[in-house]
């Protein structure tokens, strides 16, 4: 290469490096970000800003390819403001790029934020909490992404408003259910939610009059309330169990899968998690009645939490407690939660209908869940022999649910040093042995594992990669595109962008690749010394 050309290239590289340093310095000196980053935590202002920009990209992208209801009550369905983004091919492509690229950029910001961390301090904990809130803020104004379950919440609230039980009636029994945005998966399936949440769904439908955008906003506020509960409980539970509170919040709540599914996807799982975690915290602090009421509330949101009750009882006792004291704690737990759930059943008018709904899966089975695939396969064989596919599949699902319950009972009778850890194992079994598995189900477990911190090293790096892969899967699988535009090509575009960026983060990025190739964690001296550039 000629010397003049080489000098010009070096000059351009030097100018770009100087500009990047100036940009980084400008971001770090931004008053709002420095205040949110908290004093000596100002070095984290850059990834905080990157994550916020990514969240803005995702928000705008959702306006073009996020889920939107098409009823006459819909505000945006009756306006032309979103036509350039949702109807025109160019707008859909731009929004797809923003959603896919923004999701991966938030993943990088999460990893870099962790790499810039150090030891736990009150300032570092405040910083990571502020980061979760900062990255969540733009998503308050996004269309639902990664899932459209929020519209099934509205449909079940509509059933309640009509005086029908979502445990014995389906959202497809009411006219206009599909245009309201619900996934056909839940068209003829019993509600998997508890009476307290269904009562809240009825209230949302009543207050909003069924206007989808207003209902999504209220359901999203409920999800944010769950996020706030988790932000309160996770660091306290981690401190109680000897883990690093800042690290626990970062890995379980600041990760993009949690933020994008709970806030962006408007999931009630955040409320369920918040109630369970808060219950453990209060019980460990001696507030047993309050803790049991919190867990009862979590069960009344998602009944799957009933599997945690044996471990909630064990949390009241020392690890050396005998069988007699265990039974005493379990009886007390059963009496209090039974009374609370009876009250929730009474005020909702649904009583204990959730027990029957929990025992059957209806048509809500995903073939890529191992048990779902097995049930459908055995059901198909039975159908060929003259039997009924759905009945046979339900029998298979019920058997595996019984196995999950049996594993929870077996874990409860073992001598557990940490009931929180065994609770995570029981919930893990219930997820793996269920006929339906959603990516965000793993989020139930991560705060519990993080609070005990029994898995480090390779397991943590596996979680980094799995989290980013599941984010990409959520982007590709849950795109809402008009019928006149090829959904296949839009998905291929999103997948290509996500895979290229994911490969860059794992193999080429001079900062984040250290987590995967050299095996250095986010809290190592090597990475803290490297954390000098964005």
Question: Can you put this structure into words, describing what you see?
Answer:
The protein has 534 residues and is an all-alpha fold. 66% of the residues lie in helices and 0% in strands. It has 24 helices and no strands. It has helices spanning 3-28, 31-37, 45-65, 83-86, 89-115, 122-136, 149-161, 195-208, 212-240, 245-252, 256-264, 269-284, 288-299, 309-314, 323-348, 353-359, 370-384, 389-413, 419-432, 446-452, 458-477, 487-508, 513-518, 525-530. α5 (89-115) packs antiparallel against α21. The longest helix has 29 residues, at 212-240. The protein is globular, with a radius of gyration of 24 Å.
Brief summary:
By secondary structure, this protein is mainly alpha-helical. The protein has helices at residues 3-28, 31-37, 45-65, 83-86, 89-115, 122-136, 149-161, 195-208, 212-240, 245-252, 256-264, 269-284, 288-299, 309-314, 323-348, 353-359, 370-384, 389-413, 419-432, 446-452, 458-477, 487-508, 513-518, 525-530. The two termini are 31 Å apart.
Q: How is the biggest beta sheet arranged?
A: none
Q: Uncertain runs with pLDDT below 50, 5 residues or more?
A: 520-533
Instruction: Return the string of H and E elements.
Output: HHHHHHHHHHHHHHHHHHHHHHHH
Mean pLDDT: 86
C-alpha end-to-end distance: 31 Å
Beta-strand share of residues: under 5%
Rg, alpha carbons? 24 Å
How helix-rich are the residues, as a percent range?
55-70%
For the secondary structure, the number of strands is: 0
Helix/sheet category? mainly alpha
Which descriptor suits the 3D outline? globular
Number of helices: 24
